[in-house]
């Protein structure tokens, strides 16, 4: 304010502004389809060619193409189900873990849902070393979610995927990104805070997530909220 306070010119008012510099995959964010490729092909077979991946961003499948996510959300509280809260040690969450969790918590996923997977690591956000040890999806869990034809998958961890787990069929080290995002067009949301939902045992809700229209970006910050139905 000191730099703009000039009563002779502007009267009593002053103002302040700042500069934001960030990676497009920092904090709570959503991945754009151009973020991942399968043998140098993006979603729908779009080639990773110079006219697509440019110095100023992607000309196709950038963050500006991500629609508002407004619809039914479903919480799969895997940490509570497995009685390991938080679920650390880079635990690979399996298909059996997810299906058992859904059955125990009365969650029935439908096409178009936003599925949120809780590891409990969200409470460790201010402890980066432990937060980075959060569990994540094993390849068969990603396939299970793909079969449910959900619209998006989110998690309270860095990558959605389990760290260091290779898919035997494809050799992919981050299979959720390959299978869900680049093959099926299912959006991934990372670094969520799911603690309030878990505390209230709120397994179904209205999910609202609005990404920024960042042209050509590989991801966008997102501010997701859950609205209690009724």
Task: Write a structural description.
This protein is α/β, with parallel strands linked by helices and 230 residues long. The chain has one domain: Glucose Oxidase, domain 1 (3-Layer(bba) Sandwich). The chain is built from seven helices and twelve strands. The strands form three sheets. Strands 11-1-9-8-6-4-10-12 form an eight-stranded mixed beta sheet. Helix 3 (95-105) packs across helix 5 (139-147).
Q: What is the CATH C level class, in words?
A: Alpha Beta
Q: Report the major sheet.
A: 8 strands, mixed
Q: How helical, in percent, are the residues?
A: 10-25%
Low-confidence stretches: none
Mean pLDDT across every amino acid position: 98
Cα-to-Cα separation, first versus last residue: 45 Å
- What is the overall silhouette? globular
């Amino acid at each position: 304010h000191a730099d703009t306070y000039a009563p002779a010119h502007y009267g009593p008012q002053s103002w302040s502004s700042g500069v934001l510099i960030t990676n497009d995959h920092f904090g709570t964010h959503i991945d754009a389809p151009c973020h991942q490729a399968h043998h140098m092909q993006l979603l729908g077979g779009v080639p990773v060619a110079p006219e697509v991946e440019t110095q100023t961003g992607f000309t196709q499948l950038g963050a500006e193409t991500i629609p508002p996510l407004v619809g039914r959300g479903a919480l799969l509280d895997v940490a509570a189900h497995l009685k390991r809260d938080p679920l650390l040690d880079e635990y690979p969450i399996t298909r059996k873990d997810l299906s058992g969790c859904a059955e125990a918590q009365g969650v029935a996923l439908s096409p178009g849902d936003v599925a949120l997977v809780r590891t409990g690591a969200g409470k460790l956000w201010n402890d980066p070393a432990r937060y980075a040890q959060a569990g994540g999806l094993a390849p068969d869990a990603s396939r299970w979610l793909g079969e449910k034809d959900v619209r998006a998958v989110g998690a309270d961890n860095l990558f959605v995927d389990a760290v260091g787990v290779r898919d035997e069929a494809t050799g992919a080290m981050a299979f959720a990104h390959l299978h869900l995002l680049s093959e099926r067009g299912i959006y991934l949301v990372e670094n969520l805070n799911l603690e309030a939902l878990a505390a209230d045992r709120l397994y179904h809700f209205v999910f609202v997530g609005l990404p920024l229209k960042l042209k050509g970006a590989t991801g966008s910050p997102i501010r997701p909220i859950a609205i209690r139905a009724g």
